[in-house]
Amino acid sequence: MGSKLEGSIYDFDNTLVPTDKYIWKKFEEICEYSGKEIKIDRKELETGSHLISWLKRLHIPKWKAEEIYLSEIHSLNLFPYCREMLEYVHSLGYPQGIATHSPRCVVETVLDNNKALGYVTKIVSFDEILKLKLKPKPAPDSLLWLAEQLGVKPENCLYAGDTPEDIEAGKSADMITVGVAYDKGRIKRLRKTCPDLGIMTSSKQLYNLVRLLFSR
Questions:
Q1: N or C: which end of the chain has fewer CB within 10 A?
Q2: What's the CA angle centered on 103, arms 69 and 41, to 5 degrees?
Q3: Is the pLDDT of residue 51 over 70?
Q4: The whole model's pTM is what?
């Protein structure tokens, strides 16, 4: 890594916040409310890029889906050390953003509940992807748009994510990528994408890496 970092971008789900079980539970509740059932594998649910088509198939309005999804949002907390990581980078004056397929209301609510919203400069969420017609990850569109909003060059921006689609998007955007796999089951598939800075297997590892990189 020859260039000095100018900022950082993080994925949200399962990178900063453990949402796996919550998302699955809420999707089942949305299906139950609609009285319909559609088969979705966990990989599709992780990326979240088909949200609109799912809602159309379930015949449920977006506002109702968000209401169900937010009903127990207070139970979601940041992984250990993630708030401290965001606070540290912010304290040094570096811009940092979040790139996610989750709705903006979800991201902002969780960050605000965890007293971390003020540390994040900009968010690109499902709402922006839809409004700006950006291609979802693994396309680099949302990351490039966010880097521009943050005022950082992609090649001088760190990007951390937990799925192969995250790393592929980061590499396509020419960013410095780091994989996160707090669940051992994710390590094998992340290895295939060869993140530039390897794979962090705990949020403390990610915190320590970020501190090291931005203290140089």
A1: C
A2: 70
A3: no
A4: 0.89
